[in-house]
Specification:
With 109 residues, the protein is mainly beta. It has one helix at residues 96-99; strands spanning 2-5, 10-13, 24-30, 33-37, 44-49, 63-68, 77-82, 90-92, 105-107. It has one helix and nine strands. A seven-stranded antiparallel sheet has the order 1-2-3-4-5-6-7. The protein has a two-stranded antiparallel sheet with strand order 8-9. It is globular, with a radius of gyration of 13 Å.
Length: 109
């Protein structure tokens, strides 16, 4: 499971069964894609096709294709993503690794 913080442009990996991702990273949006990147870089780890969250927190799709680029550790591959929940409430990050600093107020989507 991956939480997306659309306000801070970050993501957090909650569970990782079968998925090789660091604990957290940053997101980029382009066209109809959301890209999960390594922390502090724009190196793509996974491209989530079809998922765009607007400034008004409208969701473009609830499922789609996930694209894993090749790396030294894995070959390129295709997968699928599915939206489980949208949380529009403000929360405080308990994990400073995700927050990047203390007391970050964020939205999880």
């Amino acid at each position: 499971m991956v939480w997306l913080d659309t306000g801070e442009k970050r993501w957090l990996r909650e569970s990782h069964h079968g998925v090789d991702l660091p604990t957290w990273g940053e997101t980029l949006e382009s066209d109809d894609q959301t890209v999960l990147c390594t922390p502090g870089s724009d190196r793509p780890l996974c491209t989530i096709s079809g998922l765009i969250v607007t400034r008004r927190l409208e969701i473009s799709a609830t499922q789609g294709q996930a694209i894993w680029p090749s790396s030294e550790l894995q070959t390129p591959g295709l997968g699928h993503w599915r939206l489980q929940a949208v949380d529009r409430e403000w929360i405080y990050a308990a994990d400073s690794r995700f927050a990047g600093h203390r007391e970050l107020c964020l939205r999880r989507h």
